[in-house]
## 1
Amino acid sequence: MTTPRRILAIKLADLGDVLNITPALRALRHTYPQARLDVLLNPHTAGLLRGSPLADEVVLFPKTSFEGLDVFHPRSWLPLSRYVRDLRQRRYDTVINFHHLTTRLGRAKQRALIRLSGAPVTVGLDNGHGHWFTHPVPDQGFGARREVEYWLALARRLGASAPDRSLYLPATAADRAFADGLLDELGLAGRDFAILHPGSGGFSLARRWDPPKFAALAAALLRRFDLPSVLVGTPADDTAAVIAHATTPLPDLSG
């Protein structure tokens, strides 16, 4: 395999999923410092990597522009053709797909997007449906490996090494000052504490732990380790239900 010069990494998911690919991006950057490395993201996750040392450019995928469009209807052709034209003009020689090929529709979309990029080298997980990748990596299924390890395996398939496996989470001076002020308000400045996230994303409600169990965990952490807890998440998560079952103070930072 020739040395990649123009790499496109694809991760059309949410914030936590994008965080999980950062060790693989770092490995690619470390091994191929002269290569251009762009990352294709949904707009709501772009801020995580925009301006970071891990990506030369964050390329936005206009997901909402295509939702509900019938690709066979003429009104869909113009925005789709413009997007494909822009993607091909970037002349990527390598595409790395940081996704499991789970659903039939998802597989079709990812395969079409990667094919339309025009890249001759494609890397991705193969669970029996990824035979079309030029450089497949076996997918042993969810839970068989940590997600970070799956994505590092894709980077290794391109010859990249991973001296640092930590997640990359950028924080500006203003971010740190805001966090310090918030912790001071909560009486947690200078203390260790646990962060509990009772949600699991809108597509995986069945994997959520019951709210009483989170409340019991918070109580056990405080009782056994003198470790207070705070709740984080979105308005759609179960923070209110956890607080309703709590026997110890639980600051709610969701929202």
## 2
Amino acid sequence: RARLVLALLAWQRPALLLLDEPTNHLDLEMREALGLALGEFAGAVVLVSHDRHLLRETMDEFWLVADSRIRPWDGDLDDYARWLLDRDRETPEEEVSEPVAAPETAATSRSDRQAERRAAAERRKALHPLKSQIQNLERTLEQTQRRLAEIDALLTDTTLYEAAAKDQLTAVLKEQGELRQRAAAIENDWLEASERYETLAAD
């Protein structure tokens, strides 16, 4: 069905496209085709997606939706990832997960207070594995990027391009490609986990 919709869009040539997670249920070939089609599209595109590759390849500007507001985002996706991380670090888990206690009144029953405490405990319990997942993804991404930097430095060695080093060069390039794919997947997982954390903490 997604392929049919994309084909109809290409045929109708609208002036504006509103796309919400358009790469869901598309295989790699169709994702690449969608990216090329959006890059050549002459009209305006409003895109909501977790596909960082698609966003990087097709979007000219970004908008930030946060705290019940929407505003232009001056940076790129890497800046947004850092913004999410800094925001999480600046806001202690207790602050985002513990509701502000209401003043004690005669109407506030003991059962209500117990329910509030249970809800706060459940929220903290739900946030903890997400926070651990985010931290683990950050460490893994840092290790992957460090290795990619080492490979970039290695590829500046001119002796690596001599005939005698052909097998080594092939292995290095293969590892580089695999690490880039891994880094992209980790970034997507990190972004999704961070958004789930932010949504749950705001509830």
## 3
Amino acid sequence: MTDFVIEADLRETTGRGEARRLRRAGLTPAVIYGGDKPELAITINTMSTAKLLDQEAFYSSIVELKVKGSRGSNKALVKDVQWHPVRDEAIHIDFYRVSSSDMVHMEVPLHAVNAETCPGVKKGGLLEIIRHTLEVTCRADSIPEHIDVSCDGLEVGDSLHIEDVALPDGVQIQHEVNFTVLTIAAPKVEKASEEEEEAEVETAAADSEAEKD
């Protein structure tokens, strides 16, 4: 897990108008809450934050927020990011305070590895990822950046279920059903070829009828 440090300033006023003004000034409104400390309304640099938001590890790491005008530092997880409906730009971020030993529930990305070399894909099968993220329970200082699922040995029609996934030490996934996380689906080329062949037969038949007329 990677640690990140963000410099922040306290926000004296809130509201939509103030938030728009801050964004025009290159600042992103945010809030820190949770724990035994009061909620803090803050601003962070938009350009610096955009670089962090592009990193997958940022969402599963403890972030240290150094807020000017506030005593001490705040260690937190990214709880929510609100995005602009048109531009690829964060317009507000929620940070939730945690300590390293806190047990947390997080959505962690699933990565399929060795898919290109598995027998099913080599034979033309298609990798279909059913669950792109998995909800895990673990300590705040042990959140995996992602969970790797190996496709080694999978044939066309094979699937991997949650009980087949090897989890890092200390990481749990609560589940009542052994749900599917990915599958190697049969190629759809044959079906398309059959449809094209049927269309050609229908066209030929229509041409033949036209010649008779």
